[in-house]
Amino acid sequence: MQMNTFQKEFIMGMFLDNDNACTMNRLVVAVANIVSENNDNLDMFNNALSESVEDHYPGIVPVTRRINGFYETTVRNFTDDDYAVRFKMKRSTVQALINFLKDYVKPGSIPLDKKVHVFLWLLVSDCSYNEIGKLFGLHKSSVSYIFNEIATHLTQHSYNFISWPSVEEQHITRIKVNSRFKFPNCVGFIDTCRFKVGTKRSKRDKPDIILLQAVCDESLLFLDIHIGEIGKTRKNRVFKESALAHELKNFVEFENHILGDSEYKLRKNLITPFTSEELLTSEEMKFNEFHWKTRSYIGHAFELMKERFRKLNHIDVVKPESVHLLLSVACILHNFILMHEGCSEVKEEAVACDDGVTINTSIVQTALEKRQFLCNYINYIDAEDL
To answer: Is the torsion defined by CA of 254, 257, 261, 264 positive or negative?
Structure first.
């Protein structure tokens, strides 16, 4: 309770004898002033916290102590629209996630449905374990345990959600991509996304960077992911350390390819744009334009995941293995949601006949020759459409 001037004078009158006061009495007055100042500071902190949380989650007031019943009486009674706003997915999708986890998460004192919502709240907000614990009536150690428990189960079964497509599935992708962007024989798109890692408590500490490498298809599903080491920021180096670098030739037939930017090394199955210290030809510039537009799928996939999971804006985690776990499970949930809800941002293309191009391997043998062949083909097709 804040002390006014009258209350301070009253205390001084009780403990001070005229102009002379003993050391103990002065100490009491000093303590009274400190208590008053601390109450002022606490009020300021709570007001600031309220404004911050209200901005992120309208209608939810932050608490300074653990409360009970928030999940049971509030979250469960969200309207479908409010639920989708809070958790960035439909209620039916979360229920599907709960049903999947039933076979793996052991029963305990905290019901599985509550665990899943605590887990998701951590991902879709930038709140700490402590803040989420107070909101859901749990200790922060319980929140940490819940997150690691569910994230570990999901990553152990990641093959159910992230896997390289079959030859038939790749064929459908290349038809859809060619139908939309006129880039032939493309079955995926590769790039990396940068994430800030490190504590947010000290502004003097510059956050580290970690790269997430991913390949996606035309529906923005991740087909393959690889997380680099914290501090390594070169795409091609992260690619070389990934299993994909060694398996790509087995995953993608010679006629097909994935697209990557110029920071990757040109390969037979990884086509990059033309780069040169000299001016590019008009044909090469045309190829690069088509390449850039077609490759935009992977950028959209990363943007969608980061918009959905606010925790990724700054990964306030210390242990490298925890950072890897967080990024891995975010990718898994990204796919899980798309599998159940699709993506309104993706234009659905009709699957018709394959308008790809057949590449004669007796003529086209190297990566450079393949890129030049694709360049010639794209310019020819583009000229025909004029």
So the answer is: negative
